[in-house]
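Protein modeling request. Please complete all fields; requests missing the sequence field cannot be processed.
Requester role: graduate student
Desired output: 3D structure, token encoding
Chains: 1
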Amino acid sequence: MIRSSLPVIICLFPHFGAAQTAQTCETRPGSLSNCVRVLACIGDGGLYLDGEARGWDQGTLEVTRSDGVRCTGRWNSDGPLGTGVAELTCEDGLTGGVVYYNQDNETGTVIGQGQDSLGRQIEAWSGLNVLQFLSESGKPQEARLPCSPAPLFLS
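Delivered output (155 residues):
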């Protein structure tokens, strides 16, 4: 989900509920093996996604919902003015799509919005510094997802 690497996602810190893959998630600008962390809220009831986006200019998504359901998808950053799209399908049949806006190509930072197949809004973030971005203080250990009235900590 970004021009260079999506989806939406930083793998320097352990993910809470993140998809487990055999490969290490490392930021490698310009490389097809590039990987960033992806986080997203689905609706406002506390449901969220945590996982990885791999690739450069286009690639794959592997995320896990906070209820344990795995989801996979694809992203492509060929839109005008730094935009891209991501689509995912979950094991239980839920699907979703996000239009995202590239904030910083080198770090894989994107911000996006979309909708799932049940009509719930999706808000997504990705990139090397996504935890710092989601923290008021800029400290990764204080990152919170705004997926419910009481933000969810991502320790």
